[in-house]
Amino acid sequence: MNKIIYNPKLKKLARQLRNKSTQSEIKLWMYLKGKQLKGYDFHRQKPIDNYIVDFFCGKLMMAIELDGCTHEFEEVLERDNVKTQKLRELGITVLRFNDEDIIKNIDGVMESIKAFIVEKEKGDTHPLIPSF
């Protein structure tokens, strides 16, 4: 397992992002907080390396990113790709969902996340990443 690089310079920004959570972040957090999801501990707006991930579980080495409408712009998509690649290099799997999926189909999103976790628990080093 790779060591997660915590960047203390991002702590203040991460706190600001937590305080300005989007509707979809708040909704998903209601399902992840307090070890509700199969007993796994998730953190919101977690600084890792030079990035802040929306949700992170260290035990699973999994980040969940929520993408709003701005993520459709080419420039933002490119930054997302670079971020995802760097996180993968650190041994972190990134699951991406768009805001609309969270708001309109939280049950489907949760089933996708649970399915990923089940495969990971089986010891699959490369579980299928759910796509939505």
CATH fold category name: Endonuclease, Chain A
Alpha-carbon distance between the two ends: 28 Å
Order of helices and strands: HHEEEHEHH
Helix content: 40-55%
- Major β-sheet strand ordering: 1-2-3-4
In DSSP terms (H or I, runs of 4 or more residues), the helix count works out at: 5
The CATH architecture is 3-Layer(aba) Sandwich
Largest sheet: 4 strands, mixed
Q: Sum up the overall morphology in one term.
A: globular
Strand content: 15-25%
How would you classify the helix and strand content by structural class? alpha+beta
Q: How large is the radius of gyration?
A: 14 Å
In total, how many domains does the architecture comprise? 1
The CATH first-level class comes to Alpha Beta
What is the tally of beta strands?
A: 4
Quick description:
The protein is an alpha+beta fold and 132 residues long. The protein is built from five helices and four strands; from the N terminus they run H-H-E-E-E-H-E-H-H.
Secondary-structure topology with pairs:
Layout: H1 11-19, H2 23-32, E1 43-48, E2 51-57, E3 62-67, H3 74-89, E4 93-98, H4 99-104, H5 106-121
Parallel strand pairs: 3-4
Antiparallel strand pairs: 1-2, 2-3
Describe the structure.
The chain is an alpha+beta fold and 132 residues long. The protein has a single domain (26-121), classed as Endonuclease, Chain A (3-Layer(aba) Sandwich). 43% of the residues lie in helices and 19% in strands. The chain has helices at residues 11-19, 23-32, 74-89, 99-104, 106-121; strands at 43-48, 51-57, 62-67, 93-98. The relative contact order is 0.16. The mean pLDDT is 86.
